[in-house]
Structure formats: C-alpha cells, structure tokens
Amino acid sequence: MRNLITATILFFQITYVLSQNTISGIVTDMKNNPIVGANVYIEGTYDGASTTENGSFSFTTTEKGTQTLVVSMLSFEPHYEVGDVSYFENLGIQLRESVNSLTGVTLTAGTFEAGDNSRVSVLKPLDVVTTASAVGDFVAALQTLPGTTTINEDGRLFVRGGDATETQVFIDGLRVFQPFNATANNIPTRGRFSPFLFKGITFSTGGYSAEYGQALSSVLLLNTTDMPDQEKTDIQVMSVGGGLGHTKIWGNQSLSLNTSYINLAPYESLIPSTQGIRWNSPYESFSGEAVFRSKGEQSMFKLYTGFNNADLDIEQEDINFEDFVRFRLTNTNLYFNTSYKHFFENNWTLSSGGAISFDLNDIGLGEDQVNADETASHLKVKLKKTFSSRFNITAGTELFFIDYQERFAAQDGFETENNFDNTIWSTFVESDVFLSNQFAVKLGLRGERSSVIDSYTLAPRVSLAYKAGEKGQFSMAYGDFYQNPLNETLRFNIPLGSERASHYILNYQYLGDGKTFRAEAYYKDYDALVKFDTEQPQFDSNFTNLGEGYATGMDMFWRDNKSFENLDYWVSYSYLDTERDYRNFRESATPNFAPRHNFSIVTRYWVDELRSQIGLAYAYNSGRPYDNPNTPEFLAEKTRSFNNLSFNWSYLIDQQKILYFSVNNVLGFKNINNYQYANTPNAQGVFDRRAITPAADSFFFVGFFWTISSDGKSNQLDNL
Question: In what helix (H) or strand (E) does residue 266 lie, and over which residues does it extend?
C-alpha cells in the first residue's frame, strides 16, 4: 500500500512539473543596459519574478494558452507581451523610458513662463510685481525681460522689432481687445488688470502656439486663479488713489472682487509736470474687476469681468502751433470673459468660452470732436486628447466679431463717418510628441479667414526641444504669423491683405541650483506690411501691401537667487538689428521704437533687521533713431541713450500691514524719447525742432497695504 501511495504522489509530481511552463528572458533599456529590479509577471496571477543584476528573469507557471506577460519598472513605460505561454522563453525585452513630468524636456523657444503655468518658470508672481521700475504694473515688469524694449512715452509691449500693435493679450485663452488704458500722446499707459487675480503669465516673444493668432510678434497669456486658498480682504491707500479687494469662498465656489480709484490731481498739485504739458484735469479713473469660479468634480467654470472709466484733459506743446494744443479724453471699457473646462474619461478635455468687450472713446482735439467705438467678441471651443505621456493632440475653432465706428466733427461744421464690420474664423490643430525625456516636438497648423479683407491664411508652426543634460536643453521654433491691418486702415474699407511675419528661433536654457540662464537667437521676416503715401492714413491715401522688413538679434537672461544670502537678482540683455519699409516710410529704415541695445538688471534684497525688502532696477537702451528733415538721410540720427534707475522699499509694519515707497528714475536722468520738427522751415531754411521728453523726470509713489485674512499671515507683498 505504501508503495502505491508513493507511486501516486510521484506520478502527480511528474505530471505537475510537466504541466509547468518556464518564463525567462532579459530586460534592458533602449541602449541595451540591463534593468535591475523590474517586475515580470503573468497578468491576473501571482506567478512572476524580479530581474537580477544582469537584467535576467526566470519563473514557472501552470497557466495555459494565451496570456499577457507584464514587465514594469519605475521611470519606464510598462511593456506587454501577449501570446501562448509556451513561447515566453528566452525573451529579449527593451523598456522605453517614460516621459517624466518633473525632469523631462520642455518646449521653451520664445517663451517665458511665470507663476503656476510651468515648472520651468523664470519669473514668479512675486517677481513680476515687485520690480522697482514697474510701479505695480505687470506689463512694465515684463519689460525687464530680454526681447522687450522700454518705450518710455508709450508703456505697451514692444517685442523684437515689432511695434506695440503686434502683441495680443489673452485671459484664460480668450482675447482682450483693449488691454491697455487709454491715454494721451506721449503719456505712457498701463495695463488694465490687477496682478493679484492671476495665477500665472506666459509671455511668448515669438514662435508661439498655433492656438493663438492675429499677432505678428508675440502673445501675453494671463490665467486667472482657479480656487483661492482662503478668504481675505485687501485695503490699499496710495498717493495716487486707493483700492479695495475681497475674496469670498462658498465650498467649491468663490468670488474675488477688486476696485481701484486713481486720481493724479493731488500728486500734480504737489509735484507738477513741467515739461511741455499743462493739465486742465489730470488723469482720473475708476476701475473694477471680478472673478467668479465654480469647481465641479471634473469641471471648472470661470466668469471674469473688468470695467474701467477714465477721464483726462491736457494741453501739450506743439512746435507747429503758438499755443498749447488741447486734448480731452473720456474712455469707458467693459469686458466680459467666461470659460468652461471639463475633464472627461479616457483623457479627453473640453475647453470652451466667450468674451465680449465694449470700448467707447469721446475725444476732443482742439475744437474738433472724435467718437470712436468698438464692440468686439470672441468665441472658442477646444478639444484635447492625451493618448499617453508621449503624445497628445489639440484641435479647436474660434470666431472673432468686430464692429468699429468712428465719427469726426470739425469746428467748421465738416462731419464724416468711417466704420467696418469684420468676422474672423479660424481653426487650429496642434500635437505634442515626446519621443523621450530628452527630445520633444510640437507640430501645429492654423488657418484663418477674415471677411473685411476677404483673405484666407494657413500658418504652419513647429517647435523642437532636446535635453542635452540634467539641467540644460536646446530648443528651436519656426512659424508663420498673420495679422489684419490696423483699424486706422480698415476703417476706410480699402481692399488689403493680411500682414505676415515668419519666425526662426534657436534657444538654450539652463536651470538648476537656484540659477537660470537663457540665450536665444532669432530672425523675423516681415512681408505684406501696409504702406500709405500720406503723413497719416486717411480716406484719400494710396494703400498697398508692399511693405516688408526684418528683425534679427540675440536675447540673454541670467537669474540667481542662491549665491548671495537674501539677494535675488536677474539680468537681461538684448541685441536688435531691424529695418522695415512700411506705413509712410520712404525707404527701409530702423523705426524709432527699436534701439539696438537693451539692458536691465533687477535686484531684491531682504533685510531682517529692518523687516524690509529693498529693490533696485536699472534699465538702459541705446539711442533711438529719429528723422531729421534738415538732412537727406531718413531716420539716420539717434537720440541720447535712455537710462532709468528705480528704487523701492517695502516695510512690514506687521505680518499683514505693509508700507511701500518707490521712486522711478531716482537719479533724474534727462531722457529724450524723440524730436518733433516743424512742418515748414524757418527764415534760414532750417526746420526747427523740440525734444519730446517725459512729462516729469521722476515719479514718486507711497502706499499703505493692509490684508485681513483667515490665516492672519497673508499680505500684499506679492502685489507691490
């Protein structure tokens, strides 16, 4: 009996062994280096093993038929083998490195990120509003970045040889049609927006995404905060006005409000402008913004609105008139922006939204009257599908509607009206392809059709990035960009085509150890620019699309916040070589807004003993071209160089109360922006001139900022 039992057990053991299959092989990476510790197992079972030091594995299983063999390892994409288990022997398996969102390559050519938009941000929200020369304006802070030019008498963004009309601004992906406050000639403007409502900024100096259009040079993308972390109230008392902000939270819903009143009359009474202007009524404005947010389990809804009403009455010196010339302006601007984002299963994302703006201008030019009104709207739908960490695709469509009306009434009774309606329809598709942690490609295509000029454009765009090491990478970008002629031309209903610019960009970026270094070379080719044969565009001008030009140069950026204790600083330098033949230029020349050299340095130092943050910002531009009618050359002479050293001091009275002081151009440099020449020569045959200078050499600002929050710690230092 014992022999029978022993024989039976032996029979079953032999049968079991014979019924087993041996699974074996070697696991390596794409360079054939062995991978140690990878998990290898039959899906749905406990049969498996880990790879040894030489990458090999071996185990047995009793599973039969078609099975799935899974090979997984941290930092690598899972690998699957499907087939009959009898063939799972002596396998050679290569694992592909997964694209790591923290250490992988990023596409950076032509783009500066700020805030929460990117892990490779070169500026944070704190930075863009604590710059001494910015006086609280985030647009002025961006002018410390390479690729931009400080045009002292304007205040808008001039990027890489492009004028200010070649940059567009978007909030949550939707266009802002009038992003800057209205102002008088040679009086710098400011952005309409309060910095504290936005979580991040993307500033593309060129080569930007196919999602955005109607900008020859650059785009500025502002993203409102998703959900605030706490309720708070911000109180501001300033030498030029005051402000009040409040954030309220109800579960997954929140509302942030911000109001501001600015009046330069008290400042002008203490420190009057003395250079070429007289204020009848200094600049005065009332503005407000609000953001409502509602967060669902897989969705986010936002409603943003901004309102601004501004008045000014000024008299300015003009060399062609014996008396000062009066200019009056009342501007009312209302902007609504709503966006909805939904995250579906299977990695689909839907983004949609709409924006509408109303901009009303009541202008007095001497005794003449101009009323210019623009109503514009933007509708957009975008779908994104993420197939894996290596590949995603985005496609969308959008519509722009613009209604522009202008009425002119002269003192002598002459009246005229100019207006136009325009519908722009566009579609775009774009894909990100990450071939590895070291190499990525972005491919895009944008098509647009504009009704007012009856033209269709197709714009390809591509970006490449290669990560050469742990901290450094190279990027390059190419793209075509189109933009309609300006309203000043379209209002005459002249048949014209789109203006075009092609961008070529090569970039290197290093990030690590608290240091950031960027170097970028670029070339822009302009074509089909609008030209006219009169001093200013008017109904009897001869308009063409025969203008052309180029802009080429190099931008460099260095930031260091680790080498010196409590000191954070960044340095920017730009070299620009540009010429264009457009507008009323009689030949190709460098425009007045394009100095060859631009340099800036921004420093911030925290002093514990004084409970203070002290900042200095210095900006330098080489001389700007101007045209002297007393010489035969066109735009051949240059102004003196521009210099501006600004200082600010933030003193923490306590954790939530701040006293802030700043001086713009503290050394009082006598900057000259341009020269105005007389229309006719004097008795000696010489055209007289006057220098166009800032209304005041320096500007002083004092403010008290008080935050009341639930944590008792928050303050407005990041808004100063």
Answer: helix 265-270
Closest CA to 657 of 192, 230, 233, 53: 233
Tens of pLDDT, residues 665-718: 999 899 999 999 999 999 999 999 999 888 888 888 888 888 888 777 666 555
Residues 6+ apart with CB under 8 A from 627: 634, 635, 636, 637, 677
pLDDT in tens, 548-564: 999 999 999 999 988 89
Pairing, β 21-29 against β 91-95: parallel
Place of tokens 């993307």: 202
Entry field: residues in the chain: 720
| 326-352 core/surface letters (b: 16 or more CB in 10 A; e: else) | ebbbebbbebbbbbbbeeeeeeebebb
DSSP string, 583-642: BT-SS-B--TT--SEEEEEEEEEEETTTTEEEEEEEEEEPPPEE--TTSSSSS-EEPPPE
**Cβ proximity of 200 and 223 under 8 Å:** yes
Which distant-in-sequence residues (6+ apart) come within 8 Å of 356 by Cβ? Answer: 335, 336, 375, 376, 377, 378
List CB contacts of 286: < 8 A, sequence separation 6 or more: 259, 260, 261, 262, 308, 309
Q: How far is CA 137 from CA 53, 87, 197, 720, in A?
A: 58, 68, 13, 9
The answer to whether 557 and 145 have CB atoms below 8 angstroms apart is yes
- Contact present, 110 and 507 (Cβ < 8 Å): yes
Enter the tokens of residue 414. 């002459």
Radius of gyration over every alpha carbon of the chain, rounded to an integer in angstroms: 31
CA-nearest of 265, 270, 275, 358 to 313 is 265
